Amino acid sequence: MKFLAVVAILLAVNSASAFWTACPSTAQLTNVQSGQCTAAGCTVTRGGSLVASCDFIPTAAHGFLETRMSTVLLGETVNFPIDDTFINACDHLRGRSCPTTPGQTHTWDWSLTVPFTFPQVNNVPFRVELVDRATGGTVLCFTVPATIN
User: Fold this and answer.
1) Would you say residue 11 lies in a domain?
2) What does the buried/exposed string (b/e) look like for 110-132 if buried means 16 or more CB atoms within 10 Å of the residue's CB?
3) N or C: which end of the chain has fewer CB within 10 A?
4) CATH number of the domain within which 103 lies
5) How far apart are the C-alpha atoms of 147 and 149, rounded to whole Å?
6) What is the number of other CB atoms lying within 10 angstroms of the CB of residue 28?
7) Would you say residue 28 lies in a domain?
8) Is residue 76 part of a domain?
9) Is 2 part of a structural domain of the chain?
10) 41-44 and 28-33 beta bridge pairing
11) PROSITE patterns per the record (predicted)?
12) Number of structural domains the chain divides into
């Protein structure tokens, strides 16, 4: 009985601390980390950057992983401009490069600069994707609630 109580507490703590939610993709997303995020979401200042890393396990080899980030404001999808240095996520795989190795954990370090012109928003879901440029398939996908000041 004590074992079940400990497991329930650990699951509750783990669920409460996760600020991200996986969305449909081919890779297994195992973790997302950022010092700017808490269980309630991420906070970024306009003109600043959201810096994070995520661990994922691809199911296939990918030669070019295109970074895409978007949100929905007033019913319209808004795509974030991605700095040229971050377009190809393969250039930011910690200790690895592309093609990715199926079944192996990869860590992607990324940064998103929020334009000064972006409106202030509170608790808006931001979608982060890595798309295989050759196939157009979504390799990695997750959302994070964000507040932009």
Assistant:
1) no
2) bebbbeeebeeeeebebbbbbbb
3) N
4) 2.60.40.770
5) 6
6) 14
7) yes
8) yes
9) no
10) unpaired
11) PROKAR_LIPOPROTEIN (PS51257)
12) 1
